[in-house]
Specification:
Layout: H1 2-30, H2 34-47, H3 52-78, H4 82-95, H5 100-118, H6 129-143, E1 158-165, H7 167-178, E2 181-184, E3 195-202, H8 204-215, E4 217-223, E5 226-231, H9 234-240, E6 243-249, H10 256-270, E7 274-278, E8 283-289, H11 290-303, E9 309-333, E10 336-337, E11 343-345, E12 359-365, E13 372-377, E14 402-404, E15 408-424, E16 427-431, E17 436-451, E18 467-485, E19 490-508, E20 511-528, E21 533-549, H12 559-562, E22 565-586, H13 592-595, H14 614-620, E23 680-684, E24 687-690, E25 695-710, E26 713-716, E27 722-729, E28 740-747, E29 752-759, E30 766-779, E31 783-792, E32 795-796, E33 808-813
Parallel strand pairs: 2-5, 24-33
Antiparallel strand pairs: 1-3, 4-5, 6-8, 7-8, 9-10, 9-15, 9-16, 9-22, 11-14, 12-13, 17-18, 18-19, 19-20, 21-22, 23-25, 25-30, 25-32, 26-29, 26-31, 27-30, 28-29, 31-33
Helix pairs in contact: 1-2, 2-3, 3-4, 3-5, 4-5, 7-8, 10-11
Length: 814
């Protein structure tokens, strides 16, 4: 018997052990220790292989454990550790053989290892074949160059005077002065006559354009230091003029129609033939000549502007007063005023004809006389009315067989005063030329029609069912606004304003239908920003007098109250005012460059002209003012050889170039210009006195700044005395209104702040003086603190440092 007990207790013991392992596995799973949880679940399965819960938990965790090793392997492979990544993928496959991604990653990693053995590259290590192909495509795209742009060796303005020279000599001379090469078309055969050229302080592009116009030639850059010259005609331009493809991403168009309108405008103005739009991303793709694409870029920049936005305050004020007085006195019958004396026939029992077979159970009232007639219930005999009398009993009828009801008296006096005020002030925000709607209220259903089917559902005949159709009316405040902004101060509004309420409900065809009162205004108005405009108003006064009484008597002063009269006086006053207040929160961003006209070439050819570059403008500055040369002037006329530096001769002149007049001669060297003042930095004020919990402001200023572009810095202060609460940028780097890259980072524990500030790329430097950064401190403890610049890197647009001494400030907190 003992053996039987031991054998019977063995499964229970195994089940308790498996449950403990299962519970430990659950805890490990919650902690996301997938491998430990899988090991515990598998041990539980060994104790009880038939338990479905153990099997499901093991399968679930096996996937998570394998996926963990797959993720680790992918991270290692991205770091270039291919062998370690392969081991992780193999572990994942050993844990979960059904993992397809683990098998794929093993094969992909093996391919990468084999490829690396053949062509090792630290840069491409860790890239899959697909990623490597994608990288090659990106590199090829990044290596695509734009149209060639000339970068001559010398940016000195060209001053040239040549006479009776062929076009080739003119182009070659200009090219040698700028340090570039020139290549001519093999079919280039200009006119046989020679030309005269006289240029003063012209840029390279201007000089080439002047000669090209004179000689009917066409030139284009082939590289940074080479140009190609051929004849100017339609055929040669089609053969040699460069084409450019550019994609423009528009950021402010909201509808397909706006994108198509911009594309149509660009196509019509630039006469570009290949222009396509992609509505999915608001993209315009253009292929055209360099100048056509540049002109299209300018047009898209002018047209792709953020739309103006307006917030309109709609204020509705309504005041209503109702005063009502009711007076009444007189006779009343049945609870209602008036005189009504009905005579009822109520015969006695001896007069009535007796009928033992009938019994009276109730009565009915005659609608005309108000006489109550008794009714009968059916018994064993023939039913008859109890009120019936025989002819023999007519002589016994007397006044006792009739009855009358005397009227009562009623007195009524009521005074009611009702006053209400309604103020509704919704705000509506709308984008220019787009409708904005505001609905404040309820939707009230009303029947719009009904019909009755011709046949019933079962059998022939007309169906008794009626189908009624309902619609919903919007009741409340309904506002529709379409704004149009005319500038930073004026706006036009198309306004539709409706105020509606349910006044009453009436019965129409057995249905209660609402009667909706409506006040609607439709206006087109032009207003100034912030102007209060009275859109509409209503003032009504209603006096109502209602009298009830006996005709002819109700006009007698005292008698009318005795014989029954009533008087109701009601006075209603209503005032309604509606006005609008527009606020422009975004105005058109129209810059001077948008309004400035540009040169776009001739009707046959689009040609743009650009201002000289900064280095060309700098090179032209020394030549602009005439150098003082009173001392060497007497010796210059005696030596004619001194004239050629001012006039550059042609390589093979047919006629010697005449010397310029002495007044135009320049000395070989000009006196040095006075040195510019170095940049200065200072804290304002240098010494400051504050109190605990009081804010103080320290301003970092720059003076005599030339070509300022960026100013990264690191500020140091005592955190026990001061707390830096805010860093505000000044306008020293943006006197022209350009946006800045400004990023302050405050570390209050260490008592320092890092500020990164610079102008946007391509905006160039500025010459400026003024506040650079403003630091707002708060006193947190008594003492004195030095505010110093530990690091400061003032740089110009060429990323060269600008030397400046570092200032310091002292802040004392009491």
């Amino acid at each position: 018997m003992a053996v039987v007990l031991v054998l019977a207790g063995a499964p229970a013991f195994a089940s308790r052990k498996g449950d403990k392992l299962y519970k430990d596995g659950k805890l490990a799973e919650v902690k996301k220790e997938w491998e430990k949880a899988l090991d515990l679940y598998e041990k539980a399965m060994l104790d009880d292989p038939s338990n479905v819960s153990y099997q499901m938990a093991a399968r679930r965790v096996r996937f998570q454990a394998g996926q963990l090793h797959v993720n680790n392997g992918q991270k290692l492979r991205a770091d270039g550790k291919l062998n370690e990544a392969l081991l992780e993928f193999q572990k994942a496959y050993s844990i979960d053989p059904s993992s397809i991604i683990a098998d794929q990653e093993i094969r992909r990693t093996l391919e990468m290892i084999n490829r690396e053995k053949k062509t090792p590259s630290a840069k491409d290590r860790g890239l899959t074949p697909a990623e490597e192909e994608k990288k090659e495509i990106e590199e090829r795209i990044d290596s695509l160059e734009g149209p060639p742009e000339l970068k001559p060796i010398s940016h000195t303005p060209i001053t040239l005077k040549m006479s009776n020279q062929p076009p080739r000599i003119l182009f070659e001379t200009i090219a040698k002065l700028a340090g570039i090469n020139v290549i001519f078309d093999s079919e280039y055969q200009p006119t046989g006559r020679n030309f005269f050229v006289d240029l003063t302080n012209a840029t390279l592009e201007q000089a080439l354009d002047f000669v090209a116009i004179q000689t009917k030639s066409f030139w284009k850059p082939l590289s940074v230091n080479t140009i190609f010259v051929t004849q100017d005609n339609v055929t040669k331009r089609r053969d040699y003029e460069d084409m450019v493809v550019k994609t423009f991403y528009l950021t402010n168009t909201t509808t397909v129609q706006e994108l198509q309108e911009i594309a149509t405008a660009v196509r019509a103005v630039t006469e570009v033939r290949r222009l396509f739009t992609y509505n999915g991303q608001n993209v315009i793709i253009i292929r055209g000549t360099v100048d056509q694409v540049a002109l299209a870029e300018k047009l898209i920049h002018d047209l792709d502007k953020p739309k103006s936005e307006v917030v309109v305050d709609v204020v509705v004020m309504e005041i209503s007063k109702t005063l009502s007085r009711t007076l009444g006195a007189g006779l009343a019958f049945g609870g209602s005023p008036g005189v009504s004396l009905p005579v009822n026939f109520t015969p006695r029992n001896p007069v009535l004809t007796g009928q033992p077979t009938t019994g009276t159970t109730g009565g009915t009232t005659d609608a005309t006389t108000g006489t109550t007639l008794p009714s009968t219930t059916i018994g064993t005999g023939t039913p008859t009315k109890t009120g019936a009398i025989s002819l023999a009993q007519v002589g016994h009828i007397s006044t006792n067989d009739f009855s009358i009801t005397l009227p009562g008296a009623i007195f009524q006096a009521l005074l009611s005063n009702r006053e209400g005020r309604v103020l509704q002030a919704p705000q509506v925000r709308a984008v220019e030329l787009q409708k904005a709607s505001l609905r404040l209220g309820d939707k009230i259903p009303f029947a719009s029609g009904s019909f009755q089917p011709g046949f019933g559902a079962v059998g022939a005949g007309v169906s008794p069912l009626v189908s009624t159709q309902f619609q919903f009316a919007e009741v409340g405040v309904n506002v529709d606004i379409v704004p149009k902004v005319h500038g930073p101060k004026e706006v036009s509004l198309h306004v539709e304003l409706e105020l509606s309420t349910v006044r009453e409900r009436i019965d129409i065809g057995g249905l209660q239908q609402p009667v909706i009162g409506q006040r609607k205004i439709i206006h087109d108005i032009r207003m100034r920003e912030g102007e209060v405009n009275l859109l509409g108003g209503l003032q009504s006064l209603t006096d109502t007098l209602t009298e009830n009484g006996v005709p002819g008597v109700h006009n007698i002063p005292i008698l009318k109250w005795l014989l029954g009269s009533s008087e109701v006086k009601e006075k209603t006053e209503t005032e309604l005012v509606i006005f609008l207040v527009p606020h422009i929160i975004r105005s058109p961003e129209i810059t001077p460059s948008n309004l400035r006209g540009i040169s776009a070439g001739s009707d046959a050819t689009v040609r743009l002209h650009y201002a000289p570059r900064e280095e060309e403008a700098e090179a032209a500055k020394p030549q602009a003012p005439p150098a003082p040369a009173p001392k060497p002037a007497p010796a210059a006329p005696k030596t004619p050889a001194a004239a050629p530096p001012a006039v550059i001769p042609a390589p093979a002149p047919a006629t010697p170039v005449p010397a310029p007049p002495p007044a135009e001669k320049k000395p070989p060297a000009s006196p040095p210009a006075p040195a510019a003042k170095p940049a200065e930095l200072s804290f304002a004020p240098a010494k400051l006195l504050g109190k605990v919990n009081q804010n103080v402001m320290v301003v970092l200023q720059v003076n005599h700044g030339l070509d300022l572009f960026s100013a990264p810095m690191r500020l140091k202060y005592d955190p026990k005395v001061l707390k830096l609460t805010e860093v505000v940028r000044g306008n020293a780097l943006s006197p022209d209104g350009q946006k800045l890259n400004f990023l302050p980072v405050i570390n209050g524990e260490l008592g320092e702040a890092r500020v990164e500030m610079s102008r946007l790329p391509g905006s160039g430097g500025v010459n400026s003086s003024g506040p650079l950064v403003m630091f707002r401190f708060q006193g947190v403890g008594k003492g004195s603190s030095q505010v110093t610049l530990e690091e400061f890197g003032l740089r110009n647009s060429r990323n060269l440092p600008i030397p400046a001494p570092l200032p310091a400030a002292s802040v004392t907190v009491e």
